[in-house]
Input
Amino acid sequence: MKYVIGNWKSNQNLTESLIWVDGIDAIKPHFSPDVSVILCLPFTDIAGFNHKLSDLKIPILTGAQNVSHLPPGKHTGEITANMLGELVNYCLVGHSERRRDFNETSQMVAEKAGFLLGNSITPIICLDLPYLDEQIKELFQQNIDVSRCIFVYEPIAAIGTGHPIDPIDANHVANQISFLIDNAAPILYGGSVSADNVKSFVDQSRIDGVLVGADSLEPTLFAGIINCLAEK
Ligand code: PGA
Output
């Protein structure tokens, strides 16, 4: 199975998200049974977006971009894994923007992964080199079943720059991650992925797909990436 995962970050309100679905519906990308297409949305878009996808029978799965590291209770404003369980099958955790801007630690990432798995949501765990070992160690310390997760190598320097890293280097780090998790889960690459470069990543031996930021916001660009994988 190959994966194309979009990450809208803090973009698109509900109205804009529904226009995006119309855009994809008009383009009709080639959805292959061998390629899982997942879009990670702002919380506020998810319910309406899911509705429209099912009305139009578009085989895109949805994910959230964050979840509370706390259980349900007195935590004003937090969105728990229990709440997300009715809405999504996937959730990003540990994105470098959350580590940098919201002080998300490896311990919190592991706690979030635990709550997600407890609610049948697959954690999509983002990693980068400075904290690769530390973060994976923390997952094992908290008894997270890594075989039920998806991992993404996202070098910070490549995010949002239009300059992805060399696919051979990405594959090298994917192999390191694979070794640390005993080859138990899919490993993706993220950082300035586009339709022009996606094949060079998924052609690598240990890269099972891509996480796409900017180019997931435009239906034409995202459909281009889906089509590249479907043709493989
Ligand atoms: P980008 O973002 O594709 O815009 O580089 C990737 C990400 O941050 O997930």
Q: What stands out?
A: The pocket of 2-phosphoglycolic acid is lined by residues 7, 154, 159-160, 190-193, 211-214 (CB under 6 Å). The longest strand covers residues 35-41. The chain has nine helices and eight strands.
